[in-house]
Amino acid sequence: MTQPDPDRLSTSLRWLRSGAVSRPDADTDRLPASGDDCVRECRKALSVTDGAGAAVVSGPSTEFVEQAARRLALVCVVLAVVLFGMTAVTWALYGPLGWTPPPNLWLVRAGRALLFVLALVVFVLVRGRRLSPDATLDVGLGFQVLGGLAIALPAYHCPEAIAHHDLGHLSWLCVWITFFPLVVPAPVGRAVAASFLTATTGPLVFTAMSLRHGAPPPAPQVLFEAFAPGYICAVIALLPAYLMRDLGRQVSQARREARRLGSYQLVERLGHGGMGEVWRAEHSMLARPAAVKLIKAELLGAAGGDDEQRTVLTRFEREARATAALRSPHTVSLYDFGAADDGAFYYVMELLEGLDLETLVERFGPVPPARAVHLLAQACDSLAEAHAAGLVHRDVKPANIHACRLGLALDFVKVLDFGLVAGAKFARAPDSARLTGQGFIVGTPAFMAPEMVSEGDVDARADIYALGCVAYWLLTGKHVFEAARPMQVMIDHARSQPVAPSRRFERPIPAALDEVVLACLAKAPADRPQDALELKRRLLAAVDAPWTQEDARAWWEAHLPGHLPPAGPLEPTRTPRVPLTVDAPGA
Questions:
Q1: Which of 34, 164, 352, 404 has its CA 20 to 30 A from that of 95?
Q2: What are 304-313's pLDDT values in tens digits?
Q3: Distance of alpha carbon 154 from alpha carbon 109, whole angstroms
């Protein structure tokens, strides 16, 4: 194990944890006590977006834009409230109070309505967090220009309206232009271009309205004094745009210095949740990317005194070493692990390219039986090695199984989160509290074996049960038992008999595969397949035609074309053949 600098590691992790935002999932098929509320967030660390996904930029820039998105959303809310209040006040003044309305009141109201709608639309877009950082910046700059148009509409619609706009009086458009670079930290060039476009909305509105009504143009001095302040403010906007860029660089540099765990540089935060954070990382000497998972110490039972922290650290190291010793190609590789002085834990694992099985079914629907068997058989290989080493995963579920591209292979399965398993061979040891600590339930309700619900003896056959639940999900797109409350799901796993997968989905499912899945879901462990290799043999025998690489490539071409490997083997490089000459004897 690589030993990082303790002081640097402690400082880095304290900074990272202080900036983390924990937000449990609202998914009803999980218990909060399981610590699984971050899995749906953190699994993003081990996958990439598909063709419909958003591109990402480097970590510090991404976080800087995320902060800008929150500021932009706040501006939209404040602006919408102010506009609503101004509309209510003007209605009262020019209605019940009887004040004489200005002749262009309808344009004022139209401009406010347009700005109000724009604020709401931008708020929905940036708060949805579905946009890439670049798209977020584009939305902000577009809001600046269109918002300027809404402000210019009542201010510059006719010569009388622009008469009071001179070099000594700045309009709201000038304030808008100067203020916006502080909210949206776009690159200086794009920020200046947006500011000049916003300043141009004044002349544009005036020209369009003048042509419509045939009004004679005012004197050049009036035009200059009315529109010059906007362009002057566009030049002044260079200063906040440059300051924001410089601030972004300083923040990025400071965070790069802080984000180092041993030999790994944290580059981009990929997910965060109740257990901690997951980051994309790079090795200081190698080009290989990795995923670093930071785990909150209190969720591992290390929130007590020094003795308890040492016990948990020992257990974490023991299980991490056991996980790192696994050599199955279908088990996610663990590169490194460690702990800081403040009790936080981390481990470094390979970064995968693909989709977890939960996302796969949610996006594209249930998979054909042959593909389900292909994926499950590979997961069996991973679990078989772990079980032989005395390790029980305890949280086998679709989110922890990834269908990846690995080299030229597609639909290559990797099983994740072995770093949080419970060691079966240590289960009866006095110091072998569950890794998640006392008072926490290990597992996910929708995939928990009956013996886990009843807190009975748990061995490798609990993983067989969970893999049967995964098979059910792949074939039907539904969980074995579905209920509004997680506790009811657990009770159903302990007492209720499952319905055959073929009765829950209209696509034909082979009867032999139905039988294998129901055997995995037997209440008594003795009635299930007794090991992962036996389950693999039964799965492969349950389908007539196997899922091939040609089938997998056709699916990826249709759904994830951006992540396809080369079409076929490259022409091998041949070494030129040199004629071999042999000297005659005695020569």
A1: 164
A2: 556 666 666 6
A3: 8
Residues 6 or more apart whose CB falls under 8 angstroms from that of 490 comprise 445, 448, 453
Give the DSSP per-residue string, 145-162.
Answer: HHHHHHHHHHHSSSHHHH
- Measured in degrees and rounded to the nearest 5, phi and psi for residue 401 equal -125, 120
CA pair distance 239, 231, nearest whole angstrom: 14
Collapsed DSSP state (helix, strand, coil) of residue 265: strand
Using pLDDT thresholds of 50, 70 and 90, give the confidence band for residue 580.
Answer: very low
* CA 504 to chain CA centroid, nearest Å: 31
Q: What is the dihedral of CA 195, 197, 198, 201, to 10 degrees?
A: 160
| Residue position matching structure tokens 């042509």 | 211
* Beta strands 401-406; 391-392: pairing state: unpaired
Strand partners, 413: 403
Answer whether residue 328 shows pLDDT above 80: yes
Active-site residues, by number, are: 395
- Kindly state the tokens that stand for 59: 């970590």
On the 0-12 / 13-18 / 19+ scale of CB atoms within 10 A, 258 is middle
d(CA 488, CA 552): 37
Q: How many CB atoms lie within 10 A of CB 182?
A: 15
Tell me how far apart the alpha carbons of residues 266 and 59 are, in angstroms, rounded to a whole number.
8
Q: What is the pTM of this model?
A: 0.56
**Alpha-helix runs per DSSP H in 402-548:** 450-453, 460-476, 486-495, 511-520, 532-541
Bridge partners (DSSP) of residue 261 are: 264
Q: At what angle do helices 133-155 and 188-213 cross, to 10 degrees?
A: 30
Q: What is the pLDDT of residue 473?
A: 93
On the CB side of 294, how many CA atoms lie within 13 Å of its CA? 32
Radius of gyration over every alpha carbon of the chain, rounded to an integer in angstroms: 31
**For residues 266-284, average pLDDT:** 70
CB 354 within 8 A of CB 405: yes
Mind listing the pLDDT tens digit for each residue in 468-501?
999 999 999 999 998 888 889 888 898 889 999 9
Separation between Cα atoms, residue 247 and residue 267, nearest integer Å: 18
First-to-last alpha carbon distance for the chain, in angstroms, is 61
SS3 361: helix
Kindly give the pairing relationship between strand 345-350 and strand 334-339. antiparallel
Residue type, 347: Y
Q: Identity (one letter) of the amino acid at 234?
A: A
d(CA 436, CA 312): 9
